[in-house]
Amino acid sequence: MKNILGEGWEVTPAGGATGEAYLAKYGDEKLFLKRNSSPFLAVLSAEGIVPKLLWTKRLENGDVITAQRWLQGRELKSHEMKGQMIAELLRKIHRSEELVKMLHRLGKKPLTPDNIFEDIHYKYDQASIQHPEVETAISYLQDNKNHLAFAEKVVCHCDVNHNNWLLSDEGHLYLIDWDGAMVADPAVDLGMLLYWYVPRNEWEQWLTSYGTSYTEDLHKRMYWYVVCQTLYDIYWYTLKGRNEETAYWLNFLTELNRTAV
């Protein structure tokens, strides 16, 4: 990585699940480097959704290195997620035709309830993970997956955890870590965000800031996708042997099962 930048640069890992992200420093100059980022990054940068993309370089081995401006800022706290800035940025993302066009060009097929259910059912079957609450949830998904028709497909981030929202010291909000982005029903993102961070009595107000209205149909779609995401979390933490996190999401699933819509 240092060979790309030249003499004098200090390069250190920047964390993250993939281990492909780095912080490069030269005096007061800082860059965020990533190996083999998706070409999608250029569109996100142009739309102001992620920090500015400065350059892209292809290595002799075929790897592609991208450099973005390193911003002074911080991740959002859980209690900040119900703010209007979040709703407005997510609305911008979901209404961007350029983002949808780029993912289509990259070969991304729209995510459907059938695709998701089949994947979840396969994973749990192969891993032989059994739990009464999981079985209840999977039955619900199967019984309701054919009642979620929604014509509009947008680019969904699919991991709107508060750790992925970056507020710069200049007050600009970004949504980072787009490796899992898909073309899907906007209820995928909306459900996660509202169920995780916004009190139920504030949903209508939050959705107004986002640019839509609360309906029973939207609620049902959000609920279905949140159940899916919770099952994915339980599956992942179970395989990793992280019992505390598994127990947390099982409790969360229990509450979801009690409030099925």
From TrEMBL:
Pfam families: APH. It comes from the Bacteria. SUPFAM superfamilies: Protein kinase-like (PK-like) (SSF56112). InterPro entries: Aminoglycoside_PTrfase, CcrZ_PhaseVar_Mediator, Kinase-like_dom_sf. Residues 14-221 form the Aminoglycoside phosphotransferase domain. This is DUF1679 domain-containing protein. It comes from Exobacillus caeni.
